[in-house]
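can u do me a favor
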């Protein structure tokens, strides 16, 4: 079985199109990610960054690749960033963000996609850009979750050039409306012709540097020239008889997975209390998306990408939103030094048994990423659920003394939480606050309905 699970039907379809032509998991991941930079621009974009993991079935090796955003300022005059402070309603919470041109870090996603293709691709690079280019030329319908997120983030998404894209005629796009970003056609033509270098020394780079000069941004020519994606060994751990490969980050997913008691034989109240004891976090969150691919040879790739909230600045004529990673308070753990790679909560993961991929999964969701991923991975590998059942099951996320819960938990579970000293906050409906998980296994795949995700399965 071959499969792609992603955060948007168009993203999954792009990856499946490439798999059907004999492309590798890397080829499909590149095409799907580029498509997500057109179809999921509320969540991600080409000028963002990400983390991925790739398992090569032929060699039996697994490697992480880091294409996250770097701190800008190399060769530039040292100055304080002037950021625009915002309070954004996120579900039932008001969350503080900082945006503006000076929140933009050095983008890493183009370099990461190029490196992934060089290492593991087999179809021509230009072919991988074609599905995204079609979407940019034709427009793409807004699914429910993307439309809901756009409503929430409208203050930023409609700043500057974004107003024309996301609120044409003065009305914010709604579910089913067509998202038109014609400038992305020129972006993708540059990517097809120039490769990843378009964003670092080519057409896109020049437009980005011009905007930085015009609006007072921090990214320099030296920053772009110095950026390189990084391959590294994954964190390795054992979980329920599986060899799990992932990365340690701000969310520390490996530690949570190792510390989780066996859930298979627990009733719901006990399972929830066990999860709450392991998990914890804050309420902040931004746009992120995730995709997972398994190809016919058993190669697997998981890639999580993000713009942050987005700076509110778009490259004029290109419809390309800048990232806002320097304004993400949860990612700034120490003084920022130019050239340093920023920290991230992303944790793409692959689980092996007997050397074969049994699960490839990742999650979007900011500080809820670890909670979402842990519940799904444990659901599949520990509790024996099918991928879609594990993804669909109601989720929880503890924040201090409160536990945020999707509807569907038993009354006895809520009582158990309250008896343990927690405040149980039940949301009225399933919500993208609780993260978006994409997962593929040899027998099935699942994408998250909370993010209007989709799956494409090929024989």
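np, heres the sequence
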């Amino acid at each position: 079985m071959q499969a792609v699970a992603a955060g948007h039907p168009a993203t999954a379809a792009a990856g499946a199109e490439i798999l059907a032509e004999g492309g590798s998991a890397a080829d499909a991941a590149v095409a799907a990610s580029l498509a997500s930079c057109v179809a999921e621009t509320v969540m991600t974009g080409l000028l963002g960054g990400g983390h991925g993991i790739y398992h090569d079935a032929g060699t039996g090796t697994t490697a992480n690749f880091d294409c996250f955003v770097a701190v800008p300022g190399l060769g530039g005059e040292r100055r304080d960033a002037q950021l625009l402070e915002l309070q954004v309603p996120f579900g039932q919470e008001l969350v503080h963000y900082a945006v503006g041109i000076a929140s933009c870090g050095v983008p890493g996603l183009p370099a990461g996609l190029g490196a992934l293709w060089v290492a593991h691709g087999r179809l021509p690079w230009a072919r991988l850009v074609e599905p995204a280019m079609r979407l940019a030329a034709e427009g793409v319908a807004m699914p429910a979750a993307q439309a809901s997120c756009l409503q929430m983030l409208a203050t930023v998404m409609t700043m500057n050039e974004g107003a024309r894209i996301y609120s044409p005629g003065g009305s914010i796009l709604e579910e089913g409306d067509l998202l038109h970003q014609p400038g992305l056609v020129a972006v993708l033509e540059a990517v097809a012709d120039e490769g990843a270098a378009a964003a670092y020394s080519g057409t896109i780079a020049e437009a980005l540097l011009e905007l930085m000069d015009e609006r007072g941004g921090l990214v320099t020519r030296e920053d772009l020239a110095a950026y390189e994606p990084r391959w590294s060994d994954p964190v390795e751990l054992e979980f329920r008889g599986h060899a799990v490969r992932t990365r340690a980050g701000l969310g520390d997913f490996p530690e949570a997975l190792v510390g989780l008691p066996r859930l298979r034989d627990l009733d719901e109240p006990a399972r929830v209390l066990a999860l709450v004891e392991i998990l914890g976090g804050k309420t902040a969150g931004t746009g992120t998306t995730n995709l997972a691919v398994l190809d016919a040879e058993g190669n697997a790739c998981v890639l999580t990408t993000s713009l942050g909230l987005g700076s509110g600045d778009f490259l004029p004529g290109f419809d390309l939103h800048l990232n806002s990673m320097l304004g993400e308070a949860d990612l700034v753990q120490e003084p920022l030094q130019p050239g340093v790679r920023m920290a991230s909560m992303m944790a793409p993961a692959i689980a092996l048994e007997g050397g074969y991929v049994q699960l490839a999964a990742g999650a979007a969701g900011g500080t809820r990423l670890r909670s979402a991923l842990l519940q799904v991975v444990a659901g599949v590998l520990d509790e024996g659920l099918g991928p879609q059942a594990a993804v669909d099951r109601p989720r929880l996320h503890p924040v201090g003394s409160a536990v945020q819960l999707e509807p569907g938990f038993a009354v006895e579970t809520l009582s158990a939480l309250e008896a343990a000293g927690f405040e149980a906050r039940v949301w009225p409906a399933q919500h993208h606050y609780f993260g978006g998980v994409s997962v593929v296994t040899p027998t099935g795949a699942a994408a998250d309905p909370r993010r209007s995700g989709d799956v494409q399965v090929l024989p």
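Residues 34 and 253 are 27 Å apart (CA to CA). hope that helps!!
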